[in-house]
């Protein structure tokens, strides 16, 4: 067994990952790192390489061509593979390097008007339709995965995953964190809970899942808070997300136009069929709502500016107080655990598993295993 002497999240400038030369590390997190790279065959054009801390399963060739399709609001994927060995390495993807700010930083700096919010939602809605047209789902739409491009102010969806290919694994290694769960649809969370412990099952994503996540992102954009607080206990977070609607956006931020808030609540409906059927339908609904409203209201900023002695360069937006979530009595959501029959367990013991490369020895043992929730998503 051969182990890599270098951690995938500690690559230094000059290191080659296939045809891609590392120029700079842009960030790291518990599951891997992202680097600015260039193609040695065409140097001078910076790209971004995202490296996972574990080997990914599945066949990538089927969806690589789909994600390479060009769209102005979807990041372009150039290549994917494994490192340091093509068959036994850590999974990586290479995409365009987007010069701009992540949505949270952009919103803090710009304090967008509601007209800008509608424009951003419409652009992302059509981008989602484009992705779905290639039988691929994004599966992780949230503020941190949206970047506003410097050159034209257009939003760009990052971190695409092979949702259309249900046999391809995700990059998520551990159980889904609360800050990610709040952007998951109620039906996806219900699937995770009901099928906890079952082997070999995967949630089949639909366009309504990505549209729900876009609605949760829009809710955050106009209120400054997620529809449900990530600080809730895991049981309460699941119960709230599956059974209760969040407070209306205008109840948190009175500046939000009622028409816009109503569309956002439709996106967050517990019943998938009550959400807009497509990104195009959502965009048309937003345009109709905006045209019927008071243009002065739509042209106002989402938040008030904090008064600062340092001038505009140092001012900040005033985000309203978050909604209060009380631990009230409500329907208890049972945790369903499924066990394999003895005959199935015996069959698994006698069936040799395919050979898999292991990560370096100095990684935590907990990082070698993927949580059951992640396996199903």
UniProtKB/TrEMBL annotation:
| Region annotation Disordered: where it falls in the sequence | 343-377
Pfam families attached to this UniProt entry: Pkinase
Going by the record, the broad EC class of this enzyme is transferase
Q: Does the keyword Nucleotide-binding apply?
A: yes
The superkingdom of the source organism is Bacteria
List, alphabetically, the InterPro entries matched. Kinase-like_dom_sf (IPR011009), Prot_kinase_dom (IPR000719)
Report if keyword Kinase is assigned. Answer: yes
Entry GO MF terms: protein serine/threonine kinase activity
State its Enzyme Commission number(s). Answer: 2.7.11.1
Ranges for the Protein kinase domain?
A: 20-287
**Keyword terms:** ATP-binding, Kinase, Nucleotide-binding, Transferase
Q: Which SUPFAM superfamilies match?
A: Protein kinase-like (PK-like)
- Read off the PANTHER family from this record: MITOGEN-ACTIVATED PROTEIN KINASE KINASE KINASE 20-RELATED, SERINE_THREONINE-PROTEIN KINASE NEKL-3
What is the protein named?
A: Serine/threonine-protein kinase
What species is this protein from? Hyalangium rubrum
């Amino acid at each position: 067994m051969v182990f890599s002497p270098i951690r995938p999240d500690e690559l230094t400038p000059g290191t080659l990952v296939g045809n891609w030369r590392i120029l700079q590390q842009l960030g790291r997190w518990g599951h891997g790192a992202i680097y600015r790279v260039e193609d040695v065959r065409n140097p001078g054009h910076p790209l971004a390489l995202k490296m996972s801390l574990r080997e990914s399963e599945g066949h990538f060739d089927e969806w690589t061509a789909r994600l390479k399709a060009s769209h102005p609001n979807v990041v372009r994927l150039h290549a994917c593979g494994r490192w340091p060995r093509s068959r036994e390495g850590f999974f990586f993807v290479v995409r365009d390097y987007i010069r701009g700010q992540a949505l949270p930083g952009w919103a803090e700096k710009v304090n967008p008007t509601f007209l800008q919010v509608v424009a951003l939602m419409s652009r992302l809605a059509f981008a989602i339709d484009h992705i779905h047209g290639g039988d691929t789902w994004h599966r992780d739409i949230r503020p941190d995965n949206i970047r506003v491009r410097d050159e034209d102010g257009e939003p760009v969806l990052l971190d695409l995953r092979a949702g259309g290919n249900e046999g391809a694994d995700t990059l998520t290694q551990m159980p889904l964190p609360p800050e990610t769960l709040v952007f998951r649809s109620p039906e996806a969370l219900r699937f995770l809970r009901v099928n906890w412990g079952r082997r070999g099952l995967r949630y089949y994503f639909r366009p309504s899942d990505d549209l729900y996540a876009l609605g949760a992102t829009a809710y955050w954009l106009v209120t400054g808070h997620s529809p449900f607080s990530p600080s809730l206990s895991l049981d309460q977070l699941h119960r709230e997300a599956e059974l209760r609607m969040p407070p209306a956006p205008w109840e948190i931020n009175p500046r939000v136009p009622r028409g816009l808030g109503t569309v956002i609540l439709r996106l967050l409906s517990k019943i998938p069929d009550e959400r807009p059927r497509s990104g195009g339908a959502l965009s048309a609904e937003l345009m109709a709502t905006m045209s019927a409203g008071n243009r002065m209201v739509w042209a106002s900023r989402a938040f008030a500016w904090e008064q600062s002695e340092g001038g505009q360069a140092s001012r900040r937006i005033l985000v309203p107080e978050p909604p209060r979530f009380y631990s009230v009595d409500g329907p208890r959501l049972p945790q369903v655990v499924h066990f394999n029959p003895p005959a199935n367990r015996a069959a698994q013991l006698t069936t040799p598993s395919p050979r898999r490369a292991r990560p370096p020895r100095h990684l935590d043992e907990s990082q070698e295993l993927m949580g059951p929730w992640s396996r199903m998503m």
